[in-house]
């Protein structure tokens, strides 16, 4: 009898302990899929009904806030109903359970958790259980305060952060600063509590002081000119460095020093520079005809004939110019206590002006770079090769314009010069263009002008991989993939991205950005050749297909599902029109209730951005100009335009003629991205 009483007591204690919900698990939501009908063919025949011959229903258990693979460790037990079949598909645990019964489902993970069903379940229907974890608070403070703090591979902030984290899961943190050794670790919470981690990073740099007598010497570290003496307490990476001092009239000094972390190297403090022994010669310059302007080593010294006494020995450059004659450049060697005589004959020439259809185009004669359009120069009488090009540096272009970075050029052979000044007007055609930044390649499609001037535009929305290659880090987003469009981008972020991308591609920055005074002041450089945001007019012209337009409602077609990711097709399942019908906005109370319900539906359906280029392109070969992410455009108004609609927009908001919305320039919603252009 005592043993029997003890047995029942143990059972009772077990039930009480089980009911205390000692596990960190919580149910965040439990809903019926409105139009969800279970596919009975996916269930084994012997599991399609319970022991009382009731048809089973499906409970889809999804992880919220923790790794879905962790659910494979969970043990599911039913009380009051039967679990007839269990499987895992697409990261969800699928339970096939009794219908028309009251009961509860118990889950064992780091303790026990009971969930009592809120109502009797209907047979053959699908229910969704969103399973989460109780949360604790982690506070991380970093020294120095400009250090970046990451938790579970996501950048949370800088200096000091606090983050709500799931209990019962190992979390990883890392603190980074480019000039310091990083520090990382793991933490597991077992209770609802607050923990603080204080991180002090060790420096990965030292300081260097270089002073000289006399001061003003150039300081070169590892071949790079970093300033002039006095060069005091400047940050420098640890390890060996080659330091060089240079000053005109003094012997140079080279020394290899070793920098230790956290220390100041003063090996080159108070360096006495030794004057050079000066040696001189002379130069006499004659020309035919006379009165040519003379420039020696970049300094104008007079007209021919002319004598230059006391010229330092060594190599010197001499340039002669005279209007109507071809320029001559000569290198001469001056010897100690000797006079060098230079007699030159100027060739008869002609003045020519080259004007291309864009200021700044690079002009070449006979393979030699002469300057940017418009350029005026004097050439010898006769036949010459003229080349005008746009894009790339002059150094790249002189190599026969073979470099890919030269995106278009025009060559006019045999420009014959007569005895009268002439002007050549050049119109350069437009081509597609390809760039590569830090290993990431992107295409710019040529759009021939019509209602707007010609321009190049990105074939795709700016991707996460391109953004990271340019900016060094990504915004805080819910989904990560190199080929997803970058999102959570403000208008301010977008214009700054354009400027940095321009610099990395060797182009002139299109925007002047003034951040002083709290609010940004952004103006444009109209002659710059760098990347920028399209105007609304340019964006719509490209979205409609430019001169190739077929008049579609959306960018690329009249059937939105073929060309766009929008609210009906961007989630886990396709949503029918009646599910996302916002109704009549005249009844605001009913409209806002419907709005909240649809937003909840989109969230539960995991509507999200999708990899670029997966839908059909438009007539110009541009992808995702309808849907996926809204794209920032340029405007001088306080509110900035977004065009194109996005992954959670209704189809009516995605029509090209009706897609323009305006938001504050600091808005960085998950639906905000960008596409870039190059103007001509």
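Sequence proposed for the structure above (680 residues):
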């Amino acid at each position: 009898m005592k043993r029997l009483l003890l047995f029942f007591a143990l059972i009772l204690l077990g039930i009480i302990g089980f009911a205390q919900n000692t596990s960190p698990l919580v149910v965040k939501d439990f809903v019926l899929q409105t139009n969800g009908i279970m596919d009975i063919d996916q269930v084994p025949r012997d599991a399609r009904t319970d022991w009382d011959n009731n048809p089973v229903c499906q409970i889809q258990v999804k992880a919220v806030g923790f790794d879905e693979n962790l659910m494979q460790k969970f043990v599911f037990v039913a009380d009051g109903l039967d679990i007839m079949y269990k499987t895992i598909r697409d990261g969800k645990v699928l339970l096939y359970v009794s219908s028309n019964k009251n009961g509860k489902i118990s889950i064992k993970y780091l303790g026990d958790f009971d969930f009592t069903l809120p109502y009797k379940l209907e047979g053959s229907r699908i229910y969704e259980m969103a399973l989460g974890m109780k949360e604790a608070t982690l506070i991380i403070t970093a020294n120095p305060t400009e250090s970046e703090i990451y938790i579970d591979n996501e950048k949370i902030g800088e200096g000091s952060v606090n983050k709500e984290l799931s209990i019962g899961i190992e979390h990883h943190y890392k603190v980074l600063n480019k000039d310091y050794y990083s520090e990382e670790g793991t933490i597991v919470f077992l209770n609802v509590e607050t923990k603080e981690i204080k991180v002090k990073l060790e420096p990965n740099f030292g300081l260097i002081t270089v002073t000289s007598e006399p001061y003003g010497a150039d300081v070169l570290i590892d071949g790079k000119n970093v300033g002039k003496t006095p060069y005091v307490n400047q940050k420098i990476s640890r390890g060996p460095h080659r330091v060089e001092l240079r000053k005109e009239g003094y012997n140079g000094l080279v020394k290899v020093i070793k920098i230790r972390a956290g220390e100041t190297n003063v090996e080159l403090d108070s360096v006495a520079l030794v004057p050079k022994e000066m040696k001189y010669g002379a130069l006499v310059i004659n020309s035919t005809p006379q009165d040519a302007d003379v420039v020696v080593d970049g300094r104008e010294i007079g007209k021919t004939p002319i004598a230059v006494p006391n010229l330092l020995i060594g190599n010197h450059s001499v340039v002669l110019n005279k209007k109507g004659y071809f320029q001559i450049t000569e290198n001469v060697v001056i010897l100690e206590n000797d006079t060098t005589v230079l007699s030159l004959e100027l060739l008869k020439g002609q003045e020519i002006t080259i004007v291309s259809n864009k200021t700044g185009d690079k002009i070449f004669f006979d393979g030699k770079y002469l300057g940017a359009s418009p350029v005026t120069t004097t050439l010898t009488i006769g036949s010459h090769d003229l080349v005008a090009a746009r894009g790339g540096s002059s150094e790249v272009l002189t190599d026969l314009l073979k470099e890919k970075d030269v995106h278009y050029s025009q060559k006019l052979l045999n420009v014959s010069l007569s005895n009268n000044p002439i002007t050549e007007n050049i119109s350069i055609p437009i081509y597609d263009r390809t760039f590569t930044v830090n290993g990431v390649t992107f295409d710019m499609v040529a759009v021939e002008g019509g209602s707007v001037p010609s321009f190049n535009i990105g074939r795709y929305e700016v991707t996460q991989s391109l953004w990271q290659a340019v900016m060094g880090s990504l915004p805080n987003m819910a989904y990560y993939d190199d080929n997803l469009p970058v999102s959570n981008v403000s208008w301010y972020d977008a214009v700054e991205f354009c400027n940095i991308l321009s610099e990395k591609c060797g182009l002139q920055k299109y925007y002047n950005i003034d951040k002083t005074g709290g609010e940004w002041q952004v103006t444009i450089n109209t002659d710059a050749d760098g990347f920028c945001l399209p105007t609304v007019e340019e964006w719509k012209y490209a979205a409609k297909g430019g001169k190739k337009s077929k008049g579609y409602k959306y960018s690329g077609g009249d059937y939105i599902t073929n060309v766009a990711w929008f609210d009906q097709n961007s989630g886990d399942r396709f949503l029918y029109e009646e599910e996302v019908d916002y109704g009549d906005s005249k009844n605001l109370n009913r409209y806002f209730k419907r709005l909240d319900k649809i937003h909840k539906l989109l969230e539960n359906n995991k509507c999200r951005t999708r990899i670029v280029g997966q839908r059909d392109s438009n007539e110009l070969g541009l992808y995702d100009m309808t849907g996926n992410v809204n794209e920032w455009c340029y405007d001088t108004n306080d509110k900035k335009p977004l065009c194109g609609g996005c992954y959670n927009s209704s189809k009516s908001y995605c029509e090209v003629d009706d897609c323009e919305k305006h938001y504050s320039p600091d808005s960085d919603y998950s639906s905000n991205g960008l596409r870039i252009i190059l103007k001509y």
